[in-house]
Amino acid sequence: VMGVPESRGVLRRMSDMLEMLMKRMDILARLENSTDFHKGDEARFPLDRFQPAAGLMERIQAIAQNVSDIAIKVDQILRNSLLNGKAMEGRRDQCEVPRDPKYPDCAGKVEWMRARWTSDPCYAFFGVDGTECSFLIYLSEVEWFCPPLPWRNRTAALPSPQPFQSDLAHLLELIGTGKESLSFMKKRIRHLAQQWLRAARRLEQKLKGRQRDQKHILIHIGFLTEESGDVFSPRVLKGGPLGEMVQWADILAALFLLGHSLRVTVSLKELQSHLGVPPGRGNCPLTSPLPFDLIYTDYHGLQQMKQHMGLSFKKYRCRVRVIDTFGTEPAYNHEEYATLRGYRTNWGYWNLQPTQFMTMFPHTPDNSFMGFVSEELNKTERQYIKSNKVSSMAVVYGKEASIWKVGGKEKFLAILNKYMEIHGTVYYETQRPPEVPAFVKNHGLLPQHEFQQLLRKGKLFIGFGFPYEGPAPLEAIANGCVFLQARFNPPPSSLNHEFFRGKPTSREVSSQHPYAEDFIGKPHVWTVDYNNSEEFEAAIKTILRTQVDPYLPYEYTCEGMLERIHAYIQHQDFCTTLSPPLPPKAKSPAMQSPPSPLALSPNATHLMWSPSASRDPHAWPPVDSLQVWVSETQHACTETCRRRGLVCEPTFFRFLNKKEVFLQLSITCDSTEYEMNHLYPAVAENVHECYLQTEPLLLSC
């Protein structure tokens, strides 16, 4: 029930409208009885359009009488409720802004509401009506800037959990229809279904007896929404990039098979509905607690969520995982630092934990490696490939004619053509693309299974330098091809190359596929200077003589991806994890540091977790896997760890960002600086200066 004046006003308006309707019906009835009305007009005005049904006038009169009766009864109820509820209304009219040190922003927010509550319709949607009490109810129950009012009933029902689903057909329903990109993803899931199911069974055996939490997960693929432009869907059948859709299809399959409850959206309207976005301009929080434990999205989706979730975005952003093909470095992620130091781009500056960004390849341990899967071969298929490889057949990487346009290819293509028959899969509609040389056998754009068959026959899969870091080279290597790619000099990056400009990373790309170069290498991957004809020809000759078996790294198998995503969901918690302790800038004599949990290794080359130090059994990765080494000058932690067969782990920096650790490593610190800098903690050994980090989000490998 609304307030007294509003309720009476609504009923009065209803009564007036019914009265007006009756008057108009009466006029029509009189017209109907007029003899002049019918003369010569029957053809143009059929009588049945104007004849009111016999009982219609009576019904309207009855409704009008009912409204009149209701108005009288409501008036009585409102008067009684006014008398009975005086104490409550007194409280509502006499709300005072509470002075609670736990809610320091309350008074300021109330002041803002007094001046601006009409600036967005969402405030009225939540019941704000300009009274002090409505401000406080809103600021304590919808937002969280004021303490709850003691006289309010605050019980709220939480959303009920979704039932467990395990049938992949149900996943295909969840993905929906209406876009070529969605059709492509569903085809991929169907094609790999048996492989996924076998891998899930194997992982289930591995994890027997271990705790597995089931989560409610929203997957919002922002780049496929109409609001973001969706440039991908129209190009699926025309040779456009498919890497992102390959990855999203595999993420959906993995999350579903791990037993989580999923909701999938590719439209802004669906996103708003699932999140509970109130009407208005995005200033208010969500209408109810977020019903999802995790949200997987991309940069487009992240922007849409921030725009429509209001204050709730800040509250719930710890639940977001951002699928980010090329990665986001800490220097670009920290808004203030990026702005001050020139790292601000169109992307980045979200102030998330860097490991909330999930990449296609393991570019940097500062982000989490999500990956995708490649098809695995059984024994029969491997044997078939061995028997049917055509040793003189090369397949070119790339489906768009534009990759053939760039000059400089004539020389190395002439050398390749001398030794091998060259096959292409370049898209065309009616006639052969003129960019593709006549000696190349072009198959046009092939369906995935036909492309696999081509790779199973081919000896060599050759890259022309673009596209960067896609899934196809791994598929080729898994089908027994050797991958030949160009070494870049100078290496492109966001600092010198148009393609990478604006991406939130300074990473230098040493070749078309750095993962294949660094993590797989020879004999499966050859990286050479295409401008050096002798080096290129020597590589071709060696590849022709070399026998290679199909190879697929474990991390790109279905089981590897399932295991990795399970570990992330089970162990990564960005909502409750405390920030690592920062070094104090000055210590009073009373401030005693706790003893370091690190100790010198038996051979005194590095630090390790001390056997006497306590361990958190839930810590992930386990702290006793920690080793602390000092890099050579100008070497990043990533490089130093890899040389020692280790991986840089950013969560361990909280144990290292202390002067005591420098001393344990026998580093002389004549001076120690404390600064917000993405290169710290660090040491300049030549001048005995030590540097410690003051901003946890900038701790970087």
From TrEMBL:
Localization in the cell: Golgi apparatus membrane
E.C. number(s) listed in UniProt: 2.4.1.155
Stretches of the chain forming a coiled coil according to its record: 186-213
Superkingdom field: Eukaryota
Reactions performed catalytically: N(4)-{beta-D-GlcNAc-(1->2)-[beta-D-GlcNAc-(1->4)]-alpha-D-Man-(1->3)-[beta-D-GlcNAc-(1->2)-alpha-D-Man-(1->6)]-beta-D-Man-(1->4)-beta-D-GlcNAc-(1->4)-beta-D-GlcNAc}-L-asparaginyl-[protein] + UDP-N-acetyl-alpha-D-glucosamine = N(4)-{beta-D-GlcNAc-(1->2)-[beta-D-GlcNAc-(1->4)]-alpha-D-Man-(1->3)-[beta-D-GlcNAc-(1->2)-[beta-D-GlcNAc-(1->6)]-alpha-D-Man-(1->6)]-beta-D-Man-(1->4)-beta-D-GlcNAc-(1->4)-beta-D-GlcNAc}-L-asparaginyl-[protein] + UDP + H(+)
Similarity section: Belongs to the glycosyltransferase 18 family.
Name used for this protein in its record: alpha-1,6-mannosyl-glycoprotein 6-beta-N-acetylglucosaminyltransferase
Record organism: Tauraco erythrolophus (Red-crested turaco)
Biological classification of the source: Eukaryota, Metazoa, Chordata, Craniata, Vertebrata
